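Shipment paperwork, digital attachment
Item: protein structure file
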Amino acid sequence: MLKQQLNFKLSQKLSPQQIQLMKLIQLPTQAFEQRISQEMEENPALEGGKEDDDVYEDDFNNEDSYEEDFNEGNDSIETDINVDDYLSDDETPSYKLSANNYSADDEEKTTPYASGTSFNQYLLQQLSTYRLDEEEEEIAKFLVGSVDESGYIRRESRDIVDDLAFTQNIYTSEEKIEKVLKIVQELDPAGVGARGLQESLLIQLSRKDRTASVELVFHIIKDSFDHFSKKHYKKLLQKFDISEDQLREAIQEIEHLNPKPGGTYSGNNRIVEHVVPDFTIKIVDGELDLTLNGRNAPELHVSRDYTNMLKGYKEAKNKSKSQKDAVMFIKQKLDGAKWFIEAIKQRQQTLFVTMNSIMFHQEEYFLSGDERKLKPMILKDIADKIHMDVSTVSRVANSKYVDTPYGTKLIKEYFSESMKNDQGEDVSTKEIKKILEITISEENKKKPLTDDKLAKILKEKGYPIARRTIAKYREQLDLPVARLRKEI
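Attachment content:
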């Protein structure tokens, strides 16, 4: 049996404008500039640059609506557009945006673009000097195309055989793949085309003069790579019957090899991310000074041509249906332009207020640069201070960079949870990690500290932390376990 029921439900929904504003806030400087360019291309009523100094002339000070003007003609066309809402006689139009927190003397920084021959093209150019038959050439090109940015081919021969059959209609064998791969591995830089680190190091060693030291290194990598990578030095000393000095020389020889041969090619035009700071913090006369990157404060205004169209339209006595459609189009574009300009103002204000609160929360750090002075800080701390939603603070922190006297940092790096020290005070986990990092850097590398010993040392310093927490922080700092930090 079907029933109809009427229910009332109260829900909060964001308007399309609010959603767009949130997206604008989230954009970093470079993406924000691209968004402005896109908006200006799509909306001809929005213009950039400084506007003419002369003010708008507006002789239409009456309160008559556009609908009433239409009724003067024989053909009555009804509309709810009020032209006066889009015309202003103010000295400075309300929709004009001036750049805030920005000096015309600010340095204009542009992003460099990589150019030249790509790494794969460089390998193909070398390949053209080899005499190969048609099938070998196609296989070699496919293998070169499979080389990643580090210089490795991280695929099994049988998988390459299948791919050649499916994508290139080339039916070959694993033996043929191995034969052609040997040719690819002769290309420069040395070690390219290897299927792993061990093979890459062996290829590099094979091009060196076979001195006694190189010969020892070759056998260590070939026969005892697992012992070497896990730093089981005692087993290496016993297996090869060598002294510690000989092993130390061998390790130094290995350290001169390149674990990522693809990274040595200077012409590699892989696009490198160039960070553009959204904020700058300086210390002026012992005080912190915050500025917003001027590229976040563009000069935009509504097109004068579009405003003049409305003026002419209001003055016209006889108005047609097509003219009404034109005004509807103009109204839509003007609304979009004025909203976008207002959204940029709100974005600027939100960014500045948020970063300003973060800066003063971490004032001791920004004045000294000592990471041990970073205070515990979560998103809610800043959101409560500036009376904004946590999600808004998150959008600012997760995608924006700040240029400080101590380097350019992602803002979210200044946020951290808190822990209690032995005196019951809240301290930042950043502070604890920094102390852990310093402790490990000062350890005796011949007898590196285990996580248990590190936990005891930090407890003595006033930070009672469990061993498993030490292990977690060490991994977050990308520091290996004690055994892998050991040196001879």
